[in-house]
């Protein structure tokens, strides 16, 4: 009897911990609202580019070797049109993922497509995506009034874990 109770209790704790890492419908709505303050009509594309550049600057500060992964988009000049275009692609990709947070099949399809794109890029790692998450958690409070890092990270990982599942 004690063993059965222990298994049930352990199962409940495991399910509770797993639920803490799930992006719920409420979380998805909150993240969408947070992101809307970045993506809103009041913010120009330039604001989004600046945020993206700051995210990459954060990544390069924490991992200078990561710069070599972006040589083809002229990372040597972070304000170059080629690097800005790359930043726009990244931010637009994130926007798509955020808009699919509440539609799991579409989220999986979009994240799967991004996984395929990143899997063929030598040197792209799970750790790089974690650095990007760290950057957003540090930088978004500067542009999002009611930024909730826990909710952001739960939903971020619901998408990014699909992408990074194929990476080292």
From TrEMBL:
Domain of life: Eukaryota
Disulfide bonds: 23-155
Keyword Metal-binding: yes
A Gene Ontology term for the protein's cellular component: extracellular region
Signal peptide: 1-18
Pfam families the UniProt entry points to: Globin
Binding site for heme b: 118
Sequence ranges assigned to domain Globin in this UniProt record: 22-168
SUPFAM superfamilies from the UniProt entry: Globin-like
GO molecular function terms attached to this record: heme binding; iron ion binding; oxygen binding; oxygen carrier activity
Keywords, sorted A to Z: Disulfide bond, Heme, Iron, Metal-binding, Oxygen transport, Signal, Transport
Family per record: Belongs to the globin family.
Protein's name in the database: Extracellular globin
The organism's taxonomic lineage, starting at the top: Eukaryota, Metazoa, Spiralia, Lophotrochozoa, Annelida
């Amino acid at each position: 009897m004690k063993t059965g109770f222990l298994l049930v209790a352990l199962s409940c704790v495991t399910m509770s911990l797993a639920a803490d890492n799930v992006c719920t419908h409420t979380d998805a709505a909150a993240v969408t609202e947070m992101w809307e303050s970045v993506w809103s009509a009041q913010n120009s594309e330039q604001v989004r580019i600046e945020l993206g550049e700051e995210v990459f600057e954060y990544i390069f500060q924490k991992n200078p070797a990561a710069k070599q992964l972006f040589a083809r988009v002229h990372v040597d000049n972070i304000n170059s049109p080629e690097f800005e275009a790359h930043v726009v692609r990244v931010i637009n990709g994130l926007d798509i993922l955020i808009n699919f947070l509440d539609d799991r099949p579409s989220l999986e399809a979009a994240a799967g497509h991004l996984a395929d794109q990143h899997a063929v890029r030598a040197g792209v790692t799970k750790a790089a995506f974690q650095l990007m998450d760290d950057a957003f958690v540090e930088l978004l409070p500067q542009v999002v009034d009611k930024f909730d890092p826990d909710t952001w990270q739960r939903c971020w990982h619901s998408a990014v874990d699909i992408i990074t599942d194929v990476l080292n």
